[in-house]
Amino acid sequence: MKINTIAAAILLLGCHTSVWAIDNDGLNNSLLTNPLFSDSTMTLSFKNYWKYLKEENANPKHVHNAWGQGVAVDYQSGYFADFIGFDAVYYGAVKLGASDYFNSRGVLYNNGDGNKKSNAEGFSKFGQRNIKLKYSLADAHFDARWGWQVLKNYGVISTSTRLSPTTYSGISGGVNYGGLTLRGAYVENSMDRNSPDKKQFQTNTGAKIDHLASGEVLWKSDLFDAQYGYGESANYLRRHLLFTKLRPVERLTIGTQTYATHALDEYLAMPASKRDFDNNAWHFAIDALWQADRWSSKFGVGYTSAKKENEIGFYPRHMSKNSRGTFISMAYAGDDYMRDGELVLANISEYKLTPDLAVGLAGNIAQFNYKDNHVRSGEINAFTRWTPSSAPMKNLTVWLMFGPGWSYKMSGKTPVLTDGHYTRTHTLSSEAIIEYRFKMF
């Protein structure tokens, strides 16, 4: 969908410059007072992001390290005739540091072949630029977007954010009536969270996938929420998901998630070495969140079935290369605990030392069986989050996380055995984020 010229034009129209202050028979004043411009906002944000991993799972010890400074300028118009508007968001990033294998951290642009630290660069892009529509009829509300946009947990399609979010080019829209929402999306291209390049969706072998399509039905009430989603990456993977949330008492929320992915022709045609599973993959999860005044704790259990002949299969979160898939199970952590036959237990607990400062622990432990081995892996991370509530720093967020983990020597996801036994490995990860944003108008 070629919208670059349109996007540039509407962004220029949205800029508040002195040109609009010139009164020409009241025309420009009337434009200024039109909700399309008078209701518009612009937000400037800065994000410093450092992400680190030391691991030895597949090779001798490797360090994956990336550090960058990002900026985002987010312009959102009002609506002309309470019907049509436009948004545009610029993202920029500057490299501050990198090691070899930096690209696995998703922070900096990899401008070259391989994963050498000399390839690490910043980037600049208009990651979002779209036309938006809304319409209301009685109690029903319609909205839609066309262009480059963020799709967060939109059916089976989602986004991920580092110094910028993953964005998609296409059409999305929905209808809401009371607690019921129907919505869908059709997208043809993407921009990664750490790249300015327009990319085509691909299979694991690099073959072109024409599009991703997804739809969902959501029901929300005070006591119970439900979400059913369906989607396909054209002729590659088909996915169903079903989420529920039950709030039996005010402080307790119980959630369930079921994911089912079916292989289509293009997936089945790939060599076995490129497939995550053979024909079908499932993931089931349940969690419980208790929230008190100063502390909260969330426990989760997950189980995966992803059969693969002669190897350990894996449930893929994403519907293709260059896309992100909706996945909210606690099995998604620093490591992804979604191997065939793997059972994972997870917890994240947080305590507020003050209204602005929280500390916590997050941990996972998992096990699956392979050739008479009970293969175990896990991690534990300490974190802190500071969100000052008083001026001038009330829009500041500081996040720090650090912790060790353990895994196993592997080829793909399959354990490498020595004398019939798997070999334990160790990991160390850390993350630091400092973000500040303020509204320009």
From TrEMBL:
Q: Name one GO cellular component term.
A: membrane
Q: Respond yes or no to whether keyword Transport is given for this record.
A: yes
Keywords of this entry: Signal, Transport
> What is the protein name for this chain?
OprD family outer membrane porin
In the record, what terms sit under GO molecular function? porin activity
> Residues of the signal sequence?
1-21
> Which PROSITE patterns does the annotation name?
PROKAR_LIPOPROTEIN
InterPro entries referenced in this protein's UniProt entry, alphabetically: OM_porin_bac, Porin_dom_sf
Classification from the root reads:
Bacteria, Pseudomonadati, Pseudomonadota, Gammaproteobacteria, Enterobacterales
Q: Which family is this protein grouped under?
A: Belongs to the outer membrane porin (Opr) (TC 1.B.25) family.
